[in-house]
Amino acid sequence: MEIQNNQIDHLNGSGLSPQPTSGKNKNLLVLISSIILILLFTFLYFHFRQTSLYWAESSFKKGESSYTNGDVDTAIYDFTQAIQYNPDYAEAYFQRGLAYIKQSNNQNAAADFEKTLDLYGSNSTLCQQVQQQLDQFK
Fold this sequence. Notes:
The protein is an all-alpha fold. It has helices spanning about 5-15, 25-70, 70-85, 90-100, 105-120, 125-135. The protein is elongated. The relative contact order is 0.07.
């Protein structure tokens, strides 16, 4: 089947052939692309942040269970994992500090208690407990 010249001309006039893009259209395309990228990165950031917080909580609960069962080494490992997933997890620092005390590792315990105070401030019940633990080292 042969395509006749008038059929090609008809297709070209129908918008199927590439048309030059104006400066306004290019700017609009760049703007839309930028907005899409920003939205994508924002979604990914919050998605991974939520995932990280989930794993932090999961590791923390495993640490509590290990500590309760007397497995201090595993508890320290689990609390450390929780802290790696969420470096601002004050309760994980506190619990790891208690586990360090069980190992007679007072230096690491004191460091974790100090970090707990830094993260929580002085107005919480947890910080009062931390301060009591720190006072034992003085």
